């Protein structure tokens, strides 16, 4: 079958396409199609000009230059028939952002422009049908440089040693700080030799922690005691959270510890020391999720680990945007394509001012957006926190960021005795707990939307789109002060529909009634408060007494204002259609532009 070669015709051993992408993927090129997954083998990298003879062999990665439209599609099929593993293309001479979705590391990217989208979509469909991987290369990348880099990687690649864990990512310090906030303790992350890799800040350290941090390793007398108590045996044997009692005579305070594992391979451990305050109620659950998340950052050396995480994030981003099939993700992550899944979306909102913070209050008088380092810190904290909670709920959970929002994919969901309702309720509870932890542990104000459960992994873009619609509506604050933190489409369906209708009205001025605009302008110049009075009257279905009570005015005053509004605008309030459209346009004015 095309694209499945493990060795070339001359007997050379290839490397998995996934491994090549770990090094030169984002931001050089994206996976546009992977019908046979990412473990297909590459053992040679060639440049092909359409004017040259199409000469491709099993295991080739072909860099296709200068081909467009139907010619490019025919070449993709021909290369697949000749056994090539993958083909890389540029779909336009425009800038990368105009042609392709942004790489996983670039946030807030724009959608495709129509020309690049149509061209890439056609090539993607051809590649899917032919069974060959398709890579979309950024337009600014030089083909000769890409060929040289990729060929060197293929030539130099050797099977990695799974036991060589190397250094861990600097993000471990961020993770340690997040765990500390979630557990209300002092955290240290160690490798399998008890070397301290990262730790959280804080005072009230006991003697063991002080010596461990200063020496970057636990002192041998203490390590001998932990071995004698069987702590290390428990940490190596599984995911059990181990409790170590306080020993004042030894200078040891109460601790929790959990092992970090990659399958059966122990990678290290996370330790949480209790300070003067008790550990949090959910400390053990947070510790379990943190161990599963941290394992990914300890498997390879720093560059390899971050590249591997980036590839997982990129594949998830591509799946959420509908750019790859579910099988490409399932080929990298242990998930089932035929089981239920859903997407939860998280968005940071305006940061509150802490009570008694004089400096913050002074800044609050002249509000402005947080600077870039602060935004990055908040984003990283939220990603870590969401990763910890979702990993504790589902081992195969994945987290990524797109357009400033953090998305969690919860795969492998199985229908229970109550159908899907029980699963959805448990995810809602998880989401509420995560949002509450963001506020309590990290002082982050977060809103979250839970997309509908889909029965196949390939349908998760629909779940993500629904979660986005809910977050968009929540961000527009249609409830006039009702603070929704977590919602589903069933919670806010009417608000979502109204929100999207108002957004459509804002985008197209031709849909606005000039009579309503005239009333709004009159109100602004005269200060008669006719707009608010008329809107309250319409929302109360013409019940003047109820509307007046809401506005704290006399019913006769309200009736007068409604009559005056009709006279000024010329709107016939006896016509149901005019009443409806007037209410929509007044709502649009009341809420202002979309945030």
Write structural notes for this entry:
The structure is a single chain. The protein is of the alpha+beta class. Helix content is 47%, strand content 15%. It is built from 22 helices and 17 strands. The protein has helices at residues 17-24, 69-81, 96-99, 114-130, 143-156, 171-183, 207-215, 220-228, 231-237, 283-295, 302-320, 326-330, 358-364, 372-393, 421-442, 460-475, 489-507, 514-526, 530-539, 544-551, 555-569, 576-591, and strands at 15-16, 29-33, 41-42, 44-48, 60-64, 86-89, 133-137, 185-191, 196-199, 242-244, 255-262, 265-274, 340-348, 398-402, 405-413, 446-450, 486-488. The strands form four sheets. It has a five-stranded mixed sheet with strand order 2-7-6-5-4, with helices on both faces. A five-stranded antiparallel sheet has the order 9-8-12-11-10, sandwiched between helices. A hairpin with a 4-residue loop joins strand 8 and strand 9 (196-199). Helix 6 runs antiparallel to helix 10 and helix 19 packs across helix 21 (555-569). The longest helix is centred in the middle third of the chain and has 22 residues, at 372-393. The radius of gyration is 29 Å and the shape is flat. Mean pLDDT is 78; it is low at 1-12, 93-114, 158-170, 300-305, 351-367 and 478-482.
